[in-house]
Amino acid sequence: MLHENDAAFILRDICMGEKTFSSDVKEGKIDIYADIDGLFRVNVDKLTQINMQDELMIATRHNNYPVKKGELLAGTRVIPLLIKQEKLNIALKIANGEKLLQVLPYKDYKVGIITTGSEVYNKRIEDTFTPVIIEKLKQYNLEVTHHEIVNDDKEMILNAIENLKNNGVTMIICTGGMSVDPDDVTPSAIKESGANIISYGAPVLPGAMFLIGYFEDDLPIMGLPGCVMYSKSTVFDLLLPRIVAGIKLCKQDLANLGHGGLCLRCPVCTFPHCEFGKGV
What is the CATH number of the domain that holds 168? Predict the structure, then answer.
């Protein structure tokens, strides 16, 4: 038999991965915190398996949640005052040496933006899209190193993409021309640029017309729908933290967003402290 505090340390060590730290133990309970700004990651399958065991519990924030240094990530608790060693042995076997929780640091991307649209290109209207993107990038300490404005012309867009790549950008964001109208050529240009398209379309509202692909060197390229410009929270806000943390997205990642991917358009937006994008 183990005292609750002794058992709590074992449960803590199962959880604590890179860039995390813990509180002192109190009555069998230990809290775990972020040691850096970054993306919180949880092994949900193993977390569930351990929580299936009687007399043990681990409660966490959602997987893929952007966190700040010092923020609470998880709480662990041993239910009884005394617990059988066997219970902890089962939890250790489930973990199999892998930490359940970690915080991934954000990487230092050099971002290039391509603004598409004849009215902006011909200076008939002001580019109001790029400032929105710049503000969102600032949340992750990213700066735009190159910006090109092009007409609704496939060759111009292709040339702009190639120019950004030649100038050493490590992330490309395209805005404008992302719908299915005949004169919206941004998606076809991205497809012909040599990028491997992961998905054109995402089960998220707002953000259904989102496009993402990768070049051979894993350089991500995104096509952002117009809703990113005027909606407080969109698919871009859900996926940007993962991309900045260096996670290479796949089709399954986007498909998983469907559960919880409906924004309720609250009068006062509280994202990310809401259910948007928090599917299980």
Answer: 3.40.980.10
Structure-block tokens of residue 232: 């407080």
Q: Are residues 41 and 122 in the same domain?
A: no
**Residue 173: C-alpha distances to residues 224, 236, 255 (Å):** 7, 11, 21
| Domain identity same for 101 and 117 | no
**Distance, CA of 65 to CA of 103 (rounded, Å):** 9
| One domain for residues 163 and 220 | yes
CB contact burial 110-132 (16+ within 10 A = b; e otherwise)? bbbbbbbbeebbeeeeebebbeb
Cis preceding-peptide flag for 220 (omega within 30 of 0): no
- Domain assignment of residue 42, yes or no: yes
Q: Which residues pair with 113 in a beta bridge?
A: 147, 173
Q: What is the pLDDT of residues 162-181, one digit of tens each?
A: 999 999 999 999 998 887 66
